[in-house]
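so my prof wants the structure for this chain in the tokens format not the other one, which i didnt know existed until like an hour ago. anyway here's the sequence
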Amino acid sequence: MPQCVAPRMSRHQTGSRAPDIGALTFATELGWVSLAQHEEVLVGVVFGYSSRHRATRSLRQCLARGAATPRVDELQIDQQPPAIIGVVERLMAYAAGDVVDFRDVRIDEHHLTDFGRRVVKACRRIPHGRTHSYGELAAVCDSPGAARAVGQVMARNRYPLIVPCHRVLATGGLLGGFSAPQGLAMKRRLLELESQTRSAR
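here's what i got, hopefully its the right format
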């Protein structure tokens, strides 16, 4: 399951002088999306929800799972930094069926091990409309035989769509796991959306 892990906050960031986290929730053709950022770096994304309230609640629950719960302020789109506005626009375009590249989007990786960072980096290089198995991704990361460990990293992915864990499948092309709203039905929907876009190019 894609999961959020609360960002590590330094002592001076946990005071009351300014919001630690700026959040934004918006509707797309893949359901409601809620994202959180700190200094133009994403710290969490959830998507596929049936209402604004459910998306916002899910994001806040994700961000509250760390040792210290950060302050989260819901901001309007015009209060977001330009880089985050660009991410929002790309997420909406992706949900509408466009081919979108998220590889340059800055994400917080403090919670990842060195292996986890390699897996995330390799996952982000999987092209739109293509898939890898957990084993193939492990091999790309110079860790053949570590398919289960790759699956664990993907299960903790807190940036679904940005880090396209839906493009990583089990052996034999089986879908494997996915616990965004609607579960495997959503994973299948994303893969079909990308397949249709790719075949239309």
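also thought this was worth mentioning. The radius of gyration is 16 Å.
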